[in-house]
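Researcher: We're teaching a course module on how sequence relates to structure. For the next exercise, students receive a sequence and then see the predicted structure as tokens, so they can try to spot secondary structure elements on their own. Here is the exercise chain.
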Amino acid sequence: MPRRRPGTLAGRIALLHAVAHIELNAVDLHWDIIARFTDQPMPPGFYDDWVKAADEESKHFNLICDVLEAMGSHYGALPAHAGMWRAAEDTAGDLKARLAVVPMVLEARGLDVTPGMIELFRKADEPAAIAALEVIYAEEVGHVAYGSKWFNWLCGRDGEDPKDIFHSLVRRHFHGALKPPFNAEKRAEAGLPPDFYWPLAEVLGQDRLPKGPPGVG
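Model: And here is the predicted structure for the students to work with:
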């Protein structure tokens, strides 16, 4: 991906384009988690949560698209990464892995970086971008919380330790390091305690662990 320079208008457009791409991918991923794992009986609340999340992600995508158009651009004008689809493919056969990697790692990362993006657009005096990002920031906490809630529910049903299973699944399926600084307050609000993510940041930040044997988690 080309390097973004947020100090320029083009750089800010590129940053918002990346956000729009993430939000659109999230819409598809939330519908996918509803349809893909029907072999596992889940309570009605599981489906209610992800339908709500998909609806909110769609709103987020449209908010960012409106900002892009007001800035003279549009979604699709720039290249976009395939990281979220790679995560979806890697976790297509394991509901716990999908919950661990997508909401509890990738979406939790949004809680870490969004405050900095809001400040960047505040310095650039871009009120429409600030308003859109503030909506996203407030609602993404809930999406991470859905992931944490249902991950812990599945582990409890299976008599497993959620922290140990989370560590093993992320080591197996996540490509890259968990990068501090972490937004500890918002992560805690979403049900992610520090002992879930800090050990992975320390280990993966030094050396990528090999994938575990089939069936881990």
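Model: If you want an answer key for the exercise: Residues 204-217 have pLDDT under 50 and may be disordered. The two ends are 32 Å apart (CA to CA).
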